[in-house]
Amino acid sequence: MVYLIQGITLGFSAGVSPGPFHAFLISQTLKNGWQRALPAVLAPLLSDGPIIALVLVVLTQMPGVVLRGLQVVGGVFLLMLAREAYRDFRTAREKTAVETGSARESLQKAALLNLLNPNPYIFWGVIGGPILLDAWREAAGHGVSFIAGFYAAMVSVFAGLVIVLATARHLGDSVTRTLSGISAVALFAFGIYQIVTGLFG
What we know:
globular; mainly alpha; 9 helices; 82% helix
């Protein structure tokens, strides 16, 4: 139970902490609706496996330049997403307009964003990884409990965000346009921050 509670606590914290993934969810929900955006909340389940393995086995023994390079690449990808969100802001349509993009595309973009986001690497390298190793050394079930609690909490928070945004989306075109603009600015800011940190941090 201790590791399960730790996982739920850390997962909830990760879910409510603002970051590039939140801005992406906002953009996708406003653009494509909750049905197409909701699968994107599962992206960490697809992308974090390789991240955890890389952090625990390889990344801890590699120079910091690897993480900085990842930050730069991720920053460029965020700028591309920001451009998409800004385009949606400029060409905001009525809520009855035909939605573009599929659930699969949203999930693929979200998984790629997560792979290029340094935050999961930092979290699993500094916080989650050591806890997971300790739990696994005690018993495999403890490790599974920690992972299950973490992702159940985080994915639930992300799903709640999508549902709330879907409700806001139906409040009118002006609300949708405003939120699209906010997501574009957030994605741009996170992108610039990651590039600058990667190059000069």
